[in-house]
Amino acid sequence: MVYEIEDMSKAEKIFTGWEETLIYSCIQKVMGKIYVTDNDEPQSAFAFIGRFGFFAGKPERELVKNIPEGFVILVPQNEAWEELIEDVYPDAKKMTRYAIRKDTQFDTVSMRNNLLMLPEGYELKEIDDEIYDKCLKDPVTKEFVSLFESKEKYLKDGRGMVILKNGEIVSGASSYSRYREGIEIEVDTIESERRKNLALIVCSALILRCLNEGLYPSWDAQNMGSVHLAEKLGYEFDHTYVAYEVASDMRTH
């Protein structure tokens, strides 16, 4: 039996040492949930937020079998969890992701210079009430805000910047998630507007906004392109880690 845990102090120790802001969001009860098979003395736990799930502690088949429906990205704490995920979901796609250091000291002068690269005819704006609604209309931009339970929640806890062209969003950087001390950045640019430094510009704007508010803008990379963009912004690569893409039709239980 799988339970959603309420006493996060019991789950926190299981994730000790794992520097992942999505896990922080769950433990701090800002966003996401944590599941266990033993409410009283859990030895393993599954933190889930958005599309991401993190397995920690003693490998537990029941937790792996009972992941949310749909497309998810599962991150194992160690090789034992890897083996269990592969056993339960033999068709899961194993991939490498890239962790970025969480202690970046940003060059704000360089960031402000990046803003000067905005091409003529483009407009840089914060995600406000109006832009929030505009984000929901397109799959490319929906994830900038959709993880928050409501518009009010996003406008209170979320942070985001977009670039508009002819009134339409062509690039944006936003809080995929929020934890007390900062945000996890989500960034995307529509295909026709790529290779114009828009991602660099909009991320610089979001990072400056976060720093001005005392929030840390955390970054995690799906691919080397994301790593290179992060490095242009002053971040430093830390290490690679294993993750698995699983869809509901891959289930074996």
Polypeptide structure, described:
This protein has 253 residues and is α+β, with helices and mostly antiparallel strands. Helix content is 30%, strand content 30%. It has helices at residues 8-12, 21-27, 61-65, 79-88, 108-115, 129-135, 139-142, 151-157, 198-212, 224-232; strands at residues 3-4, 33-36, 44-49, 52-57, 72-76, 93-100, 122-126, 160-165, 168-179, 182-189, 216-218, 220-221, 237-246. A hairpin with a 2-residue loop joins strand 9 and strand 10. Helix 5 (108-115) crosses helix 9 (198-212). The chain is elongated. The mean pLDDT is 95.
Quick overview of this protein structure:
The protein is an alpha+beta fold.
Walk me through the topology.
Layout: E1 3-4, H1 8-12, H2 21-27, E2 33-36, E3 44-49, E4 52-57, H3 61-65, E5 72-76, H4 79-88, E6 93-100, H5 108-115, E7 122-126, H6 129-135, H7 139-142, H8 151-157, E8 160-165, E9 168-179, E10 182-189, H9 198-212, E11 216-218, E12 220-221, H10 224-232, E13 237-246
Parallel strand pairs: 4-5, 10-11
Antiparallel strand pairs: 1-2, 2-3, 3-4, 5-13, 6-12, 6-13, 7-8, 8-9, 9-10
